[in-house]
Specification:
443 residues; alpha/beta; Alkaline Phosphatase, subunit A; Arylsulfatase, C-terminal domain; 10-stranded mixed β-sheet; 4-stranded antiparallel β-sheet; 16% strand
Length: 443
């Protein structure tokens, strides 16, 4: 027996260590949502029970940002984990399908697919319509959705079918938000046996303002017609997020799935924008501006057993971090040559890492700019946000710790702070590329 007693510990030492399976990753994006229009931010007229439950199950980031005040730039930053201005994706790629996310940039789907994940996109792409830019050329195994920036929620007669399954018309007849929920649940069902990455990019609540009659009836107490339709569209998105979360629970995957949620920018409330009935209070500004109302958004992360439940996190974070966080969760080591701007949030949200994930965050959108350094923000924004004609404001200085609504400009009182923040922003700006399309700054 003695040789066996000696050999047994050696055998145990050489045996492979059982490891938990890599977590699934579900990244959910809403479109043109108002900061105030979710229950976890105090909304009263639009119930969002499923998003509220997601917030309770994980971490709500009160200073959650996106790197652009517009749809496509934010998505380019999310998919690459880099400030999109570094590679010229500063504006929406209008002007035809030949414009899109540069092929020099790898996507989160590329990297997770290389790590053995099944990858799927359900919803809005908006990163290029030409064949070379399409999702299944950018790391996604599966795609169900549309390629552009907006889409009807109902099938439209006498128009080409632009809801695609892969590269083929899908022949979709269901209300689009419901179709996206259905397809997301089906993706989970198909890939529940191995790690998967699902990018669920709703076009709700972007225009056109289309809602189902049954949901409109639920909100008949809202007198403003646009707000009523917006509420019904928000309810549809929340319901379908609930279906995905229910599916994860039913398959006992919820404990090993990282789920994140952001809006791609603030709600469009400004003169000169196509408004949708959203509210950004207490923030000032709108989609298409570098004020808080354009770039601060609802921002959630949930990963039961890893991230604390019901935590409120107040340090600034940005959607670029979701890329780095997903890679770290999947065990993919970020390489220096990837030059990611986002950071893995898990150590910060669990308290293992003290301090702020970012001391400084930056924005450039044509002639508009902003930099947040600590609690100070220097901003130059579209003057239409003040109710006037489009133009660019002088630089203004706000202390966001005391003035979340950016009401009190301190630039005249604190010229040295203005110079400090301006120097910080200019150093970052000097690293950026010229916009590949659209207006704004040229180099």
């Amino acid at each position: 027996m003695r040789p066996l007693l000696v050999a047994l510990p050696l055998a145990l030492a050489l045996a492979p260590v059982a490891r938990a399976a890599p977590p699934n990753v579900v990244v959910i994006v809403g479109d043109d949502m108002g900061y105030a229009d979710v229950g976890f931010h105090g909304c009263k007229d639009i119930p969002t029970p499923n998003l509220d439950a997601l917030a309770r199950s994980g971490v709500r980031c009160t200073n959650g940002y996106v790197s652009g005040p517009y749809c496509s730039p934010t998505r380019a930053g999310l998919m690459t984990g880099r400030y999109q201005q570094r590679f010229g994706h500063e504006f929406n790629p209008g002007g035809g399908p030949e414009l899109g996310l540069p092929l020099t940039e790898a996507t989160l789907a590329d990297r997770l697919k290389a790590a053995g994940y099944a990858t799927g996109l359900v919803g809005k792409w908006h990163l290029g319509g030409a064949d070379k830019f399409q999702p299944q050329k950018r790391g996604f195994d599966e795609f169900f959705g549309f390629l552009g920036g907006a889409h009807s929620y109902f099938p439209e007669k006498k128009q080409a079918d632009t809801i695609l399954r892969g590269t083929k018309p899908a022949g979709e007849t269901e209300y689009l938000t419901d179709a996206f929920g259905r397809e997301a649940v089906a993706f989970v069902d198909r890939h529940k046996a191995k790690p998967f990455f699902l990018y669920l990019a709703f076009n709700a609540v972007h225009t056109p303002m289309h809602a189902t009659d049954a949901r409109l009836k639920k909100f008949e107490g809202i007198k403003d017609e646009q707000r009523r339709t917006y509420a019904a569209m928000m309810a549809a998105m929340d319901e379908n997020i609930g279906k995905v979360l229910d599916k994860l629970r039913a398959e006992k995957l919820d404990g090993n799935t990282l789920v994140t949620f952001v809006s791609d920018n603030g709600g469009p409330t400004m003169k000169g924008t196509t408004t949708n009935g959203s509210v950004n209070a207490p923030l000032r500004g709108s989609k298409r501006t570098t004020l808080e109302g354009g770039v601060r958004v609802p921002f959630l992360l949930s990963w039961p057993g890893t991230l604390p439940a019901g935590k409120v996190y107040d340090h600034p974070v940005i959607q670029l971090d979701l890329n780095a966080t997903a890679l770290a969760a999947a065990g993919v080591a970020a390489k220096p040559e990837w030059k990611l701007d986002g950071v893995n949030l898990v150590p910060y949200l669990t308290g293992k890492e003290a301090g702020r994930p970012h001391e400084t965050l930056y924005w450039r959108f044509g002639q508009q700019m902003a930099v947040r350094h600590g609690d100070w923000k220097l901003v130059r924004y579209d003057t239409a946000a003040d109710g006037g004609n489009p133009g660019t404001s002088p630089q203004k200085l706000y202390n966001l710790a005391d003035d979340i609504g950016e009401k009190t400009d301190l630039a005249a009182k604190m010229p040295e702070k203005v110079k400090e923040l301006e120097a910080v922003w200019k150093k970052w700006d000097a690293e950026l590329a010229a916009p590949l399309w659209g207006g704004g700054k040229k180099k």
